[in-house]
Amino acid sequence: MVALSILLAVVVIAVLAGALLEVRRSLHASATGLATLAGALETVESEHLRTLEPSVKAINAQFDTILSALPGIGAKAAVVAERRPR
């Protein structure tokens, strides 16, 4: 009975060790993939997105102009709506 208990403990430890080794292998593969992805994202940012920055700023400036005009347009529309016969 003691021998079987010891054998069972050894088997459980071996299975757990194997599972931990598999987890370690999977984590290492994930880390490698994430490092590759990080490099690709840096390339996209430096070669593509940074060149778009002036255009984005110009578009945002136009949106700011449009948004600043909206309250005035809304007020005028309210005046027109009040004068309109029902």
How would you explain this protein's 3D organization?
- The N and C termini lie far apart (97 Å).
- Helix content is 95%, strand content 0%.
- The chain has one helix at residues 2-83.
- The protein is an all-alpha fold.
- The chain is elongated.
Strand content is under 5%
What order do the helices and strands follow?
A: H
Largest sheet: none
- The pLDDT mean sits at 93
Morphology: elongated
Number of helical regions = 1
Which structural class best describes the helix and strand composition? Answer: mainly alpha
Rg (C-alpha, Å): 33 Å
Protein name: DUF948 domain-containing protein
Organism: Solirubrobacter phytolaccae
Spell out the key features of this protein.
mainly alpha; 0% strand; elongated; DUF948 domain-containing protein
Topology:
Elements (H helix, E strand, L loop, with lengths): L1 H82 L3
Protein name: DUF948 domain-containing protein
Organism: Solirubrobacter phytolaccae
What's the short version?
The protein has 86 residues and is mostly helical.
